Amino acid sequence: MAVKLIKVAEPLVGEEEVQAVREVILSGQYVSGRRVEEFEKRFAEYIGVQYAVAVANGTAALHTALAAMGVGPGDEVIVPPLTFFSTVTSVIHAGAVPVFADIDPESFCLDPEDVRERITPRTRVILPVHLFGNAADVDGLRAVADAKGLRLLEDCAQAHGTEYKGRRVGSLGDAGIFSFYATKAMTTGEGGMITTDDESIYEYSRLFRGHGMPERDTHTILGYNYRMNEIEAAMGLAQLDRLEEGNRQRIANSEWLRAHLTEIPWLRVPKVESYVRHTYFWCPLYIDEEKAAMGFADVVRTLRDRGIEVRQRYKRPLYKQPIMAEHNFYANGKPWNGGHHYDAEPPKYADLHLPNVEKVAGKLLGLPNHPGLTQDDLEYIVRTLHEIGPS
Ligand SMILES: Cc1ncc(COP(=O)(O)O)c(C=O)c1O
């Protein structure tokens, strides 16, 4: 008998999205217009900020927000080494130099103390990622940023609705960014958003995403076409209506799984701070390969054979990516000088060692936890995890 596959992620969609998109298609109005404006307004309200700017994807949102904060050649931005790669590449696209700091071993997010150590006269922005739906130590990072006059840009691509001390992430830094990629807690297929209370970041972001064009045929800054279209925005509005229902179910599933896995000696269930509302984009578990008596790849294969799809990211700290070690950033192969006007030696990423991230990279497993799971699915996952491992 074929084993039913319990998928690790499934979008929560229905007739409302179909109707909304159909209406746009039939209207013939596809280019950024009233639906994008409404999506921005409602998303800003949801996050608890004054302004939101919708863009083509989360990576474009990062690039735009960095540019709007004035980041450019000669600057450094402090980033975590455990995240999706575009948190880092967006800094390079802005012409600046990414500087990696280590993570906290429980939250897997930037450690403020290590960030402090890596600040130089060239640092402009601290860019924490609220990884897997958890929240980074915002107060700690804010204190470090304020002491040095730095900006804080929150990467909330995995944390729609995550709260830190009662406030939604994306409203806590100078700006936040979100992704609406297909697997995220809400999706527009591809899409992104910048959130901020800072009017100058808002105004610059709007210009930057639209060819630097304040009015037709006038270009005042170097911009891009990073616009969101009406089809995406219509889907986004319908998805925003469902977000909290999905979050509640994903949190309930994840908390149930976590509570039933604490006794497995080869698994570590990471601690979540009491003042964080973790929205569990992922339900991460740390696999102790020695105690499991099998390697990480075998755990993944065994689960897959038993019909449980899992996530397994991020395999290595991002400073170990080949492109970073070789500074291989330009198509013409010319060496990177760390950006024009950069008055220091570009970092030697290949020589970097950050102990906390190196302990966990490649050993984090994400269990299925999406809102479509049944109680039977959850019980099957827990039973299977109890069955595998050392006999
Ligand atoms: C932490 C993080 N930052 C940035 C991005 C980039 O978003 P996008 O895929 O929409 O460009 C993603 C994911 O996809 C992400 O997970």
Describe the structure concisely.
By secondary structure, the protein is an alpha/beta fold. It has a domain at 15-239: Type I PLP-dependent aspartate aminotransferase-like (Major domain) (Aspartate Aminotransferase, domain 2). 36% of the residues lie in helices and 13% in strands.
CATH structural class of the domain at 15-239: Alpha Beta
Could you tell me the number of beta strands?
Answer: 13
What is the averaged pLDDT score?
Answer: 95
Tally of contiguous helical segments: 13
Largest sheet: 7 strands, mixed
Order of helices and strands: HHEHEHEHEHEEEEEHHEEEHHHHEH
Cα(first) to Cα(last) distance is 26 Å
State Rg.
21 Å
CATH topology of the domain at 15-239: Aspartate Aminotransferase, domain 2
Strand content: 5-15%
Q: Which structural class do the helices and strands define? A: alpha/beta
CATH superfamily of the domain at 15-239: Type I PLP-dependent aspartate aminotransferase-like (Major domain)
Molecules bound to protein: pyridoxal-5'-phosphate
Portion in helices: 25-40%
CATH architecture of the domain at 15-239: 3-Layer(aba) Sandwich
> Which descriptor suits the 3D outline?
globular
* Low-confidence regions: none
